[in-house]
Amino acid sequence: MARLRCAVLGLALVSSALCAQSPERHVRLGLLVTGTMEQRGDLDRAFVDGLRKLGYVEGKNLRIERRYGDGMSMMEHSQEDLSAVARELAAMKLDAIVTSCAPSTLAAKNATSSTPIVMAAVSDPVGQGLVASLARPGRNITGVSSQADDLLPKRLELLAELMPAKSVVAVLANSQNPVHAPMWQKLRTVAPRYNLTLQLTETDGESGLASAFHKIASSKARALYVLPDDPALFNVRREIVALAAKHRIAGFYWASEFVEAGGLLSYGASQRDSYVAAAAYVDRVVRGANPATLAVAQPTRFELVINLATARTLGLAIPSQLLLRADRVME
Hints:
Strand order of the largest sheet: 8-7-9-10-11-13-14
CATH superfamily of the largest domain: Response regulator
Number of domains: 2
Shape: elongated
Low-confidence stretches: 1-20, 71-77
Structural class: alpha/beta
Radius of gyration: 20 Å
Order of helices and strands: EEHEHEHEEHEHEHEHHEHEHEEHHE
CATH class of the largest domain: Alpha Beta
Number of strands: 14
Distance between the termini: 20 Å
Strand content: 15-25%
């Protein structure tokens, strides 16, 4: 396991980073994000760093129209706000619009059929109707997908290595996320393989987290499995981690940012690397590549991150074999 290495179905995206020349013209991008700069600043910086390595320097030959949406994450009415901002960016006739997730990509898709749209990290873009296929997206949208669905059993396997047999595991889902229902069904199917009892708990907003965790604590759950690829849950990761710690529940996540905030364990593609990969797509698009034929990337390498300090607080012993497999161990 290592940092993200994108396979783009035979298309090499990052080789030009080693010998990039500054583009001759000034490039204008839109960045449409569900969340705040405080919540997603590290990803913004990773994207800008990726562009810089390709010759695009903000304030020199690059201008980014940032649109961060405070609170545009969970509630249904937020999609209306997101759509309005997407239409604003579309009217600017930018070189490309970069989106942070499925809701922002859908808003951009509905706002323009001409401006190229680059996804930074989107779960199942084919199933959600954003692209026709990974190999040939077919519209003005391309970028980086994820393999969140494929990794669901692996995360459960890692959880089973740490928790006693027949442990109750609370599965936290966003009721507004269309991909979470099928993910839950898949987890239910594979759970008997690992001798774990799963219980679904849904939340529809940050204000509902406290009640969700009250329900989780009442169920005697010993572990928490947060369903992946959800910008809303990612944005409130610190609150989720704090509530898990309060109730002494071992938290398993898809992104290392949860572990950096104090969570126990994460397994998945690096979010930062996904944004660097999105920068490579921007480079190809502004140089004339057609998004309709520019294959969508999927991560092929994933990182395992473990927080030993959290494990000690929970009284959990991390098996030495698991520690040896970890890409990063936080003390």
